[in-house]
Amino acid sequence: MTRIGVDVGGTFTDLIALDERTGCISVAKGPTTPDAPERGVGAVLAGAVPALALDEAELFLHGTTVALNAILERKGARVALVTTEGFRDVLELRRGTRDRMNDVTWRAPAPLVPRNLRFAVDERIAPSGAVITPIDRAGLRRAAEDVLAAGVDAVAVTFINAYANPAHELLVGEALRNAGFTGTVTLSHAVSGEYREYERTSTTVVDAYVRPRLSRYFADLTDELRGRGFAGATLVTRCGGGAMSFAEAGERPFETIQSGIVAGAVGAGALCDRLGVPVAVTADVGGTSFDAALIVDGRPRTRYEGVVAGMPLQTDWIDVRSIGAGGGSLARVDAGGLLRVGPASAGARPGPVCYGHGGTVATATDAAAVLGMLGRDELAGGLVLDLDAARDAIGAVGERLALGVEATARGILAILSSNMAGLLRQIFAEYGQDPRSAALVCFGGAGPLFAGLIARELAITTLIVPMYAGNFSAWSLLDQDMTRSASATALLALDEDGLARARMRLDGLQADLRGRGGPSPGTSSVESALDLRYRGQEFTLTIPCAPDETPAQIAARFEAEYAAIFATTLAHDLEIVAVRSALRTALRAAMPAATFAPDAAATSVDAHSFGLGHRTAFRVVQRTSLAPGTHLDGPAIILEDTATTYLDRGHTATVDPSGTLVVRTGSPG
Amino acid sequence: MSGHVVAGVEVDPITVEVLRNELNSAAEQMKIVLQRTSFSPVIYENLDLACALYDRQVRLLAQADALPIFLGTMNACVEACVAAAGGVARLEPGDIFFNSSPYDIGSHAQDAAVVMPVFADGAVVGYAAIKAHHLDLGAKEPYVTDSVDLFQEGVILPGVRLYRRGELQEDLHRTIVANTRMPAALVGDLNAEVAAARAGAALLAGLVDKHGLASFTRHVERLFDHGEALVRHFLRELPDGRHAASGCLDSDGLGGDPVSVRITVEIDDDRLVVDFGTTPQQRGPVNCPLPLTLSAARFAVMAVTAAGERVNEGHLRALGIRAPEGTLFHPVSPAPVFLCFLAGELAIDLIHEALADAVPGAIPAGSGGDLCALAFWGEHDGEFWTGSVDHLTGQGAGAAGDGTAPLIHISCSGGRNASSEVLEARHPLRVEATELVTDSGGAGRSRGGPGVRARYRVLSDTRMTAIVERTRTPPRGGAGGSPGLPNAMEVRFPDGRREQHGKVTDLALPAGTVVELCSGGGGGYGPPAERPSGAVHTDVAQGYITEARARADYPHAFTRPIDREES
Q: Which are the contacts of B111, defined by CB distance < 8 A and separation ≥ 6?
């Protein structure tokens, strides 16, 4: 069985294919073709997988930024919004927050649906689901005609309290079809069963906005794959983790937002699960951004509200945080005379000075190159590093600080890693975890290069460097389960009666999930959870629940978790706020044993050791030469095609059977 | 820039930047601990809190992004606690102070401060300070709009030890808890503040230990110099001069005439002084204690001069204030202060208006200027309930373009408005509308953003306290633009009576009463005659303004055929 993972990023399209019978792995990379990403996918496939294998391949797993880009570039559908009379402006009003809290000039971005395409219909439903005002049939017909006249591609429908009773939203769907509307229609209750009208409206509108574009893309990509002989199943990753079929994604396109970035976090979770690491944090470092997610018991932490370009999405959302810090981060001296690094980046072009593509401002990668941390002066693909130019650029920064080239380079990396550590501290604090007992899973082109420095800041003593670290997001596509999820607001007491009613709602959600159709290979496991709170408090905790549990058992688990956060419990009754259900179908690949080849000739390089505080000789080792079971003591620099691992003095790497490097940094600091 | 020398010792610029990151990160972690562990939504959702770290001289090391109007008061909270203890020498490791004295902390007693000294090797090296809004702390009503002295407004605990050498002072704790209508919330939130103060103290002690006290101290001095240099550099670029702005509060809270305020900003080379004028101290609770006056000036000026940087003591050095004793902005105890934030909001807006002259293009036109807070309570199905809503107000247009979506007033930036569906699910209220108010934004080359109409129907007998300010003065236009509509509230009783209110306490609303609040629109920016015709017609098509209003404000758009390209 061959499975193929293709991750389409902003600059590159990465492919990894695994033949599970032979354990043979193919890796390829090509340029992304933004106007028609399926062509870039086709080109990479053509180069990497022989036609025969493609015929026999059974799974194509995909990470895509098509939906995200449609929103970031405002190139989605022309959407109309139908709402309850009196609530025409919910989308524009938002919640009144500013992206930059203290900025009096900050202005909210324009809503995805302009005001003249928002149509209100007289109707009203109570939070109980009771109809207070029956829908105005004549008004509904008028709205349908207005929508038709507006010439939109897609319609979003959000009525107040529709989470409690979808009847009126369903009538709008009918009226639009009867009026002859042929575009796509998204009804808010189908997108989210939870209350909060702005968040549900935002999610519904985002769905409508990306739906036509994404449906076309999935159709085109399917044609591309079929045209090349691929006859297997096609899956795409979800923002809540796991993957769904293209067919399902066509029905729930908003779930593909942040598809690629999530795959790496889920893959890191699967890796931690295999290694028996209970708590870890990811450090996915590319050229521009640093992405991090906390992993507990093999799963990245999930929230139930995401955000894209300032717009909330009411859906499961793997909690990956980003800041502008990476190999391309630019160094500068500010007006007050301090050295600052990032968030501005040299990006892929012009890139770092040492790449010789026209960059003139020192970057973090230039600092690493000057300090010898890259271990070589020629990168994969034959790019020869221009170290003299990098030294000059760093020297120019150092001059303004009265520091030498080496000290400035060390300073740039110290500041970069303190920025990254700041983000990780925040994540650990929010989830109440202690970084000192966590491992750092580092990937992305620059992750294994800087991980040792980040770990020092946080007194983390274990680093995990997966195979194919530079392509790990694509690799992780092969390591997803199939998942589906749904939720509903249900305000109920946590007692026998309330729990029985919550279970009925859960059964309803599961029936909906199973009814979505499409391929669901193997048997599925059901995951149910309740959002619970003390009556009178707003704060909720999501507590998993098994079918046979009593209210007392569930309450006990809530109280244990509550006590872990608040160091106290209350005498109040518990209340159910929402029910959550997920279906999970195991799909993870059997990970092959790593293959290795002895090194031709070990070399060494003079590089800076942060542990020693001065330069010393580092062994330069090819990653492919590290057989499982090998112990490698730093100082050493480990090279592979897409990443460089910097192993400081005092650090020891052990190679596990899958080829993963597990690095112990010895005593912290 | 070579050889920064502080006290004769060379300082490393890399360490300064790393330390700056570490201190800011520590302040943010305090906030996370407070948010995670607090009981009340006003703290964890509306960010009605402040967290800051100070050095041993009570100079600001770092503060978390939190309620802007609180931030500049925190040093006063620390200083008052140290003074109450009898000086630094009397502080002991593990001590935690509680201070609800409004003239010490610069806000009403409900915003009590929690302060913990930080020790290293037996000596004080700094302080962690927290402030958060408690729902009730012994005031005559949970929220007071008509007090005439301090003693009606809450229990005054003037910098007392809640913990002594790490031991909870149980007598005091019982006293605090005995003075609230909502003991569970108070206990929960107090625990959260203590946890956050301890977290901040441990983080600061950790940084002192990591860098060594001598190095820490030297690098902090350089950090302050850096902040100071940035702000002074900004001010030096501005022309010297005095810029005044005037406005008024609707009343002192007891009814009667508007309270006029005149604020002057003086720029002299690289210094800036805010003169708060001579409006006398008021009989009602709108007086603004001096720490809050200073905080308003700090926030308003830093929002313009600090270029989005995280502020430390250095940034504040170039700023001075003038507020004579016995005035609205420097009242004398026991003058009532419960609604001091209204004066603080107004001060921020007026400082910005004054700075608009000094820094052309940096300041948008005026906004609705208030939180427009309504609190409802009553009994329903035999249970007591209470719910409150803040409102977004229209935003002024500026050099960058039209005012867009309405926002929470900048003094409470970080808060959010309530969800109608959540309100309805929890309380016997029906939200009949929450929508933009057509024609509420001021005309201009750039149009002011619209305000919000929110209409609530009470489904059972309910009582309401409203704190709606700035109903008598419209949001100002900028650079020749027109003003927007001011805030307005109308109560429609089931018997057909209609009443207009601003600030009102404990108003009875029989079931079926409708409360309609229309928050103000933002001011316009630039002369209306310069607005492109296409933009005017787009506004009409979008329903932001009516055609009648468009014809009145922008006659030029109707005297020639519409320029198709512009639209």
A: B70, B100, B105, B131, B132, B133, B134
Residues of B (80-119) whose Cβ lies below 8 Å from A: none
- CB-CB contact of A125 with A165 (8 Å): yes
> CATH topology for A482-585?
Dna Ligase; domain 1 (3.30.1490)
Contact B417 A96 (CB under 8 A): yes
Mean pLDDT of chain B: 93
Give helix A496-514 / helix A551-566 axis angle, nearest 10°: 90
- Chain A nearest-CA distance from B471, in A, is 20
The stretch A39-59 carries a mean pLDDT of 85
For A474-503, give the DSSP string: HHHHTTPPEEEEEEEEEEEESSHHHHHHHH
Q: How far is B339 from chain A (nearest CA, A)?
A: 22
Pairing mode, strands A2-8 and A614-622: unpaired
pLDDT digits (tens, 9 = 90+) for A479-517: 899 999 999 999 999 999 999 999 999 999 999 998 887
Chains A, B: CB contacts within 8 A come to 212
Given a contact cutoff of 8 angstroms between Cβ atoms, the answer to whether A548 and A554 are in contact is no
| Identity of the residue in B39, B308, B433 whose CB atom sits nearest the CB atom of A103 | B308
What's the confidence (pLDDT) of residue A140?
A: 97
Nearest CA in chain A to B408: A96
Report how far residue A218's alpha carbon sits from residue A247's, in angstroms, rounded to the nearest whole number: 8
Which of helix, strand or coil describes residue B245?
strand
d(CA A415, CA A453): 10
pLDDT confidence bin for A600, thresholds 50/70/90: low
Q: Are the CB atoms for B390 and B383 separated by under 8 Å?
A: no
Residue B249: which pLDDT band, with cuts at 50, 70 and 90? very high
Q: At what angle do helices B183-211 and B213-236 cross, to 10 degrees?
A: 100
Quote the crossing angle between the two packed helices B13-37 and A551-566, to the nearest 10°: 150
Residues of A in contact with B195 (CB under 8 A): 567
CA A655/CA A665 separation, integer angstroms: 15
Q: Which one of A81, A91, A92, A93 would you mutate to disrupt binding with B, by most B Cβ within 10 Å of its Cβ?
A: A93
Q: Which residue has the higher pLDDT, B472 or A53?
A: B472
Matching residue, tokens 């005309």 = B443
Distance from CA of A137 to the nearest CA of B (A): 20
Q: Which of A88, A92, A105, A416 to mutate to test the interface with B (most CBs of B within 10 A)?
A: A105
Residue B8 pLDDT class (50, 70, 90 cuts): very low
Report percent pLDDT > 70 for chain B. 97
B100, B136, B154, B491, B501 from B464: Cα distances, Å: 26, 16, 20, 11, 11
Structure tokens at A575: 């209340």
Quote the percentage of chain A above a pLDDT of 70: 98
Q: Give pLDDT tens digits for B32-59.
A: 889 888 877 777 777 789 999 999 999 9
Between β-strands A603-609 and A541-544, what pairing exists: parallel, antiparallel or unpaired?
unpaired
Q: Mean pLDDT throughout B363-378?
A: 92
What residues of A are in contact with residue B419 (Cβ under 8 Å)?
195-199
Q: Could you give the CA distance from residue A345 to residue A331 in angstroms, rounded to a whole number?
A: 9
pLDDT at A669: 38
What is the C-alpha separation between A9 and A477, in angstroms, rounded? 13
Q: ∠B132-B199-B156 over CA atoms, to 5°?
A: 35
- pTM given for the model: 0.93
The answer to whether the Cα torsion of B141, B142, B146, B147 is positive or negative is positive
Name which of A342, A367, A341 is nearest A354 in CA terms.
A367
ipTM, 2 dp: 0.93
pLDDT number for residue A150: 96
